[in-house]
């Protein structure tokens, strides 16, 4: 089969994937599997070897990422239902003070976003943003925009989030090095997001009536909000509670309603539980470079720094400290941990299906041909990773699908390059920048944000889409600046 025909088959496969997801709203896992099978058969894979190809791609990918994603989700679920995420945010708001509540919520979004998936983090923290907006007389958008942008930034760039883990698994990048470079990069991006949001929200964006009534009550009109956005208060008689007194008025439901009442865990404890697996993974990575191989210390740090070991230890510690010590029974702890899995099961399968697609590209020889075509463009590999991910993200909406598909396309090219471990980590982060950018009307996260803050479609594109694209592009630029030094 000629190279031109193989490339045409690959292009038709990607076009079919996008068509099925966008036009018929087919679940991405099903679409990826179907397209992978069709591309494999069209490209000449023998039917007798098709099953081995599919199972090989799925097994190799899931063997690396399934445990990490599942354990990360369990940690986030325990922190969520223990009230730890809300407690962390409340403490930050109290310490930063009323004038800097947007910055406090940005920091809260960054910290909560590490263990908690984006959509869950928004649902947890948005009621808190409502309360702060009501009490401090600030436009809701000024509080929610930098907070949610911080959570999406972490979701796109850092493990244990599925896109980052899947991309690293397919390309063979070290998660510890991704964290080593990714944490400061995402921290800078969150700060920039806060500063840009502060300037962006000086302009008034009208809120839908239902959200305005829910947040501020009937006594606050859109005219009040316009004055507040301009920094003026035209209604001094409205009650103000102060940020420290903000409460989230939510009645527990589901599993949360069955858990015994207990004081919310403290800020220091939650921060320590979030940072523990990160520190262990980083220590394991540094041990490979700084500690003599074969020594007891090297072996201990290597085991503790393995991502799945670090996350497993943190899961057990969260279950004990946030659960058993606060009155949860063994069955309740088990139920809480188990409740994390349904929300991530499909994400894990999507990542595995992306691995299948990548395996098909390699086994059919399409990957090698595409690799040579990409090399002939003359673009640096970082730019290729960023652009491909951004285009797939813009077209089909999912950060995870964009990252796993790009990893499958770039895999054969990466195999021909002599990239260091640090460069591989930066490549994954550059792809994360593409996965962050272009969150618009085909992205579920876009609709969650705009509906909860009461924005219309146009204003959502002017604020949320512009900000995420700016931050994603800046993230790519930062990886590009670091590239010569690693």
UniProtKB/TrEMBL annotation:
Annotated transmembrane regions: 5-22, 28-45, 65-83, 103-128, 140-158, 178-197, 267-291, 303-324, 336-361, 373-392, 423-449, 461-483
InterPro entries with a match to the protein in the record: Glcn_transporter
This protein's record includes keyword Glycosyltransferase: no
Presence of keyword Lipid biosynthesis: no
Keywords, sorted A to Z: Membrane, Transmembrane, Transmembrane helix
Protein's recorded name: Transporter
């Amino acid at each position: 089969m000629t190279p031109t025909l193989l490339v045409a088959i690959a292009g038709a496969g990607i076009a079919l994937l996008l068509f099925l997801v966008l036009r018929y709203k087919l679940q991405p896992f099903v679409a990826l599997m179907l397209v992978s099978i069709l591309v494999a058969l069209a490209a000449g894979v023998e039917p007798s070897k098709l099953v081995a190809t599919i199972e090989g791609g799925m097994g190799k990918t899931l063997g690396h990422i399934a445990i990490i994603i599942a354990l990360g989700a369990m940690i986030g679920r325990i922190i969520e239902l223990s009230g730890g995420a809300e407690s962390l945010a409340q403490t930050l708001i109290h310490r930063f003070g009323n004038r800097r509540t947007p910055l406090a919520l940005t920091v809260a979004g960054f910290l909560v976003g590490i263990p908690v998936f984006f959509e869950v983090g928004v649902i947890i923290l948005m009621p808190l943003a409502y309360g702060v907006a009501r009490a401090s007389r600030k436009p809701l958008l000024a509080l929610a925009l930098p907070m949610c942008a911080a959570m999406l930034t972490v979701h796109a760039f850092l493990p244990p989030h599925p896109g980052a883990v899947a991309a690293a698994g397919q390309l063979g990048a070290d998660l510890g090095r991704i964290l080593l470079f990714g944490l400061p990069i995402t921290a800078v991006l969150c700060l920039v997001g806060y500063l840009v949001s502060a300037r962006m929200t000086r302009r008034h964006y009208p809120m839908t009536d239902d959200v305005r009534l829910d947040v501020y009550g009937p006594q606050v009109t859109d005219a009040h909000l316009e004055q507040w956005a301009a920094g003026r208060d035209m209604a001094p008689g409205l009650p103000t509670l102060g940020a420290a007194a903000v409460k989230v008025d939510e009645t527990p439901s589901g599993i949360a309603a069955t858990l015994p009442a207990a004081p919310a865990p403290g800020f220091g404890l939650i921060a320590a539980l979030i940072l523990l697996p990160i520190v262990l993974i980083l220590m394991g990575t540094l041990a490979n470079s700084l500690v003599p191989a074969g020594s007891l210390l090297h072996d201990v740090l290597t085991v503790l720094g393995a991502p799945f070991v670090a996350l497993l230890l943190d899961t057990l510690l969260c279950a004990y400290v946030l659960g058993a010590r606060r009155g949860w029974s063994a069955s309740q702890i088990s139920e809480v941990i188990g409740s994390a899995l349904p929300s991530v099961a499909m994400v894990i399968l999507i990542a595995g299906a992306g691995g299948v697609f990548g395996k098909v590209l390699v086994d059919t020889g399409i990957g090698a041909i595409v690799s040579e075509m990409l090399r002939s463009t003359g673009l640096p590999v970082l730019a290729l990773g960023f652009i491909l991910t951004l285009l797939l993200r813009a077209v089909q909406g999912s950060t995870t699908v964009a990252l796993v598909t790009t990893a499958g396309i770039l895999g054969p090219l990466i195999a021909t390059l002599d990239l260091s471990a640090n460069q591989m980590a930066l490549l994954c982060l550059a792809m994360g920048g593409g996965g962050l950018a272009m969150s618009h009307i085909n992205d579920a996260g876009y609709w969650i944000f705009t509906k909860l803050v009461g924005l219309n479609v146009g204003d959502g594109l002017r604020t949320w889409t512009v900000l995420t694209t700016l931050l994603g592009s800046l993230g790519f630029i930062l990886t590009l600046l670091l590239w010569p030094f690693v």
